[in-house]
Amino acid sequence: MFDPTPAMAGWFGYPLELDDRLRLIKGAGFKAVLLWWAVESEFEPPVPQKVETAAKYGLKVENAHLQFAGVNSLWQDGPEGEHYLAELIGLIAEAGVYGVPRLVVHLTRTSTPPAFGEPGFSRFMRMTEAAERCGVTLAFENLKVPERLYEFVSRAGTGRVGVCFDSGHNHYVCPERRICRDFAPIIKAVHLHDNDGTRDAHNIPGDGTEDWALVRRELIDSAYEGAWSLEIEHPLTDKFGKSLLPEKDDPYFGMGPEEYLDRAFAAHKRLIDGAF
């Protein structure tokens, strides 16, 4: 069922505390939020406070993104992978406790991860089993190595795992594949953002070369029932607002967070209305 609820990632590149970010997201008109779900991170309070802050501003938690810094260790034998798995399973349990329905999961990090093998597959299946016990759906995201997602879903079975369709990664990494179409029956989360096909820019829809009419049609034709969520990010690097890009390459250079979110909300409405 098509859900027009405007949803926005809780981190959008501006170095503000979570309370300020969610207040601004609500003020721009968004009704739902994507949270970052990690043991600890800069600009992020503990897990319970994230959910409380979303509730404070009347924002539905559409899904949360599970941490992934050590995810490549899961594919290798040894205690490091077991330790990281325990952290992830703990975070999955907390999602169940605090009512977060879906977690977005990375299978790999970087474009040259360890090879697909039994250590990694069994660990990710243990995560899936933990999620089933907690009433949480895992949505595995398409990344820099799309073959890993296809192989994992084939092995795991479509009845047990879901997919997070990331439009920007599809456009940048493998435009010849149609991730949303290929996994249409099991799309459980979406990350919508734009780029010019040369880098993972996380621009607002319309500020790149993505074919949004095609993306919209694929989403409608899929079994996805959740909100169409923006995962966009102003290219800032630190708490002082230093830009990653020179002014000529940054479409949001000098733009404050309120103006940025207003622009994002307008783009989301255009996407929902089919106006691209």
Features:
276 residues, alpha/beta, TIM Barrel, 8-stranded parallel beta sheet, 9 helices, 8 strands, globular
Task: Classify the beta-strand content into a percent band.
Answer: 15-25%
Measure the end-to-end span: 21 Å
**H-E string:** EHEHEHEHEHEHHEHEH
CATH-wise, what's the superfamily? Divalent-metal-dependent TIM barrel enzymes
The number of distinct helices, counting runs of at least 4 residues, comes to 9
Total strand segments: 8
Q: Indicate the CATH architecture.
A: Alpha-Beta Barrel
Rounded average pLDDT: 95
Which ranges are low-confidence, i.e. pLDDT below 50, for 5 or more consecutive residues? none
Biggest sheet: strands side by side, in what order?
7-6-5-4-3-2-1-8
Radius of gyration: 18 Å
Oligomer: single chain
Structural class: alpha/beta
**Share of helix among residues?**
25-40%
Largest sheet, described in full? 8 strands, parallel
CATH fold description: TIM Barrel
CATH class: Alpha Beta
Write a brief structural summary.
The protein is of the alpha/beta class. It is built from nine helices and eight strands. It has helices spanning 18-28, 47-56, 79-97, 118-134, 146-156, 167-173, 179-182, 212-221, 257-273, and strands spanning 3-9, 32-37, 60-66, 102-105, 137-141, 162-166, 187-191, 227-230.
Outline the structure in words.
By secondary structure, this protein is an alpha/beta fold. The protein has one domain (3-273): Divalent-metal-dependent TIM barrel enzymes (TIM Barrel), CATH 3.20.20.150. It has nine helices and eight strands. The protein has helices at residues 18-28, 47-56, 79-97, 118-134, 146-156, 167-173, 179-182, 212-221, 257-273; strands spanning 3-9, 32-37, 60-66, 102-105, 137-141, 162-166, 187-191, 227-230. The protein has an eight-stranded parallel β-sheet. The relative contact order is 0.15.
